[in-house]
Write a structure and sequence with these properties.
It is built from 12 helices and 8 strands. The protein is α/β, with parallel strands linked by helices and about 280 residues long. The radius of gyration is 23 Å and the shape is globular.
Amino acid sequence: MSRVFDALQRSGLEQTGVEYADMVSVATRVFEAPREDAAPEGEGGFPSLEVSVTVPGRLVFITEPDCLAAEKFRFLGVRMRQLQQSRQIKKVLITSTIAEEGKSLVSANLAGVLAKRKKQKVLLIEGDLRRPVLAQQFGLDKLTGLAEWLQGDSRRVTNVYHLEGPDFWLMPAGHPPANPLELMQSGRLAELMEQLASQFDWIIVDSPPLLPLADTTVWARMTDGALLVVREGTTEKAPLKRGLEILRKSDLLGVVLNACSDGNHHNYYQRYAPPSK
């Protein structure tokens, strides 16, 4: 490229007798100048985005921080930090046996409570490339994400966004690709996870359900352990048994019971919760 610019400069000098400015430097300034419509650079060098969260989204760590559900997620965060003290855990897979059991809900709320600890950098990855719903819960859509990075050639980590308010980072799924499993097995995913592990204290992966897809087994090889989400009144015994057979026993960190209807816990918390404002 520089030889082309040198030839143009010599041609201009021969024809006009006027020496042009260093065209390589000029072109570099033009092409490397930041776009006026680019998102502002946030923490860690990634763009910062404002998020919109509503109560029906059930992101209780933001909308209802004093409710019983938020307290349960804080307790889950404490348990994860305790586990981290006894074994190497940084990359945590959140999955379920079937769809509609609340794994995305658990992933987002767990990332939120972990991020509350000072000096802890938390990344939430929307690892379901087939039916992504996580970014929508934050009022974000049409963002480039994991799928675009896996289909690209650059080794530089991009498509990660710092969410203002929740104060953690999100890598959305992006536009659903035609070949998600092939992309995940290409070797690019392992390279990405290795780079991200050096930049964050926690990486929470919201993966597809275990049944009937094979995507989650790929994620299991990239992470340090898995939390299995089951939903009261939804999860059936036979699918749960098959799901547990798919996950290696050493990979299972625990089971999260979602939508528990135990009224005794609710009454107990009501007596000890802070007064409403």
